Amino acid sequence: MRIRYLNGTRSLRVTRAGTERLSNSQSQLDQINVFPVPDGDTGANLVETFRGLRDIPRPDRTSRLDTVASLIAESVLTEARGNSKVVMAEFLCRLTDEWQSRERVNAKQFASTLVAAAIGAKSAVAEPREGTLITVLERWANWIQEQAQSEPDFEPLILNSLDAARRYLEETTEQLDVLREAVVVDAGTLGFVRFLEGVGEMIQEGHASTYVYEAESIPTIIKHFHPVEIASEYRYCTESQCSSRDCAR
Description:
Shape: globular
Mean pLDDT: 82
Low-confidence stretches: 215-249
Distance between the termini: 37 Å
Largest sheet: none
Radius of gyration: 17 Å
Structural class: mainly alpha
CATH architecture: Alpha Horseshoe
Strand content: under 5%
Order of helices and strands: HHHHHHHHHHH
CATH superfamily: DhaL domain
Number of strands: 0
CATH class: Mainly Alpha
Number of domains: 1
Number of helices: 11
CATH topology: Serine Threonine Protein Phosphatase 5, Tetratricopeptide repeat
């Protein structure tokens, strides 16, 4: 068993690694952004949402999970931009609530708090749509919870969850008409998968990849993307932020 618990130090390291991987995918995500409006800014907004993490002081090796999680959630909530980005911020804020008074969590505890955070984040969305980030987050969290019942090691738990996340990502193309028409996956969900890949690399290799995703590296399901014009009098997506009581403090 390599990783038996998650504390504050580890949570910041993997979150920063996920952010690095996400940053390297920015142009790719912008290219396939067609939902909720085709304004080509999902990658830029996600990167902007997580940019404040680099300003969080490096914790010592024994830092508490609840302390560092609050700093991460506050940073992300403050910088959140765009629809799926606010979803990620809300999810992390709900997760911080679940981690209050916790110095660390084991795999089972981690899984149960993920599920609670995903349910909470989904309830904060007025009209959650199947095939978007909010539903994929919930499915991924449920997968983690099921596997954590027999897998106490975070390394195989997270690495194996990537296969499930990628499968849910590919399914988004058939779950939303606008994605099916454009032959693309949901951009926000792809951003989440890229984030998870960075987390996985940190766990497995001890560092995040510096590989930059360009058009030719886009998965097969989105290689044939062509811009889709959507008739709407509303050109831009608009969101409002509501934080939980702990993140608001």
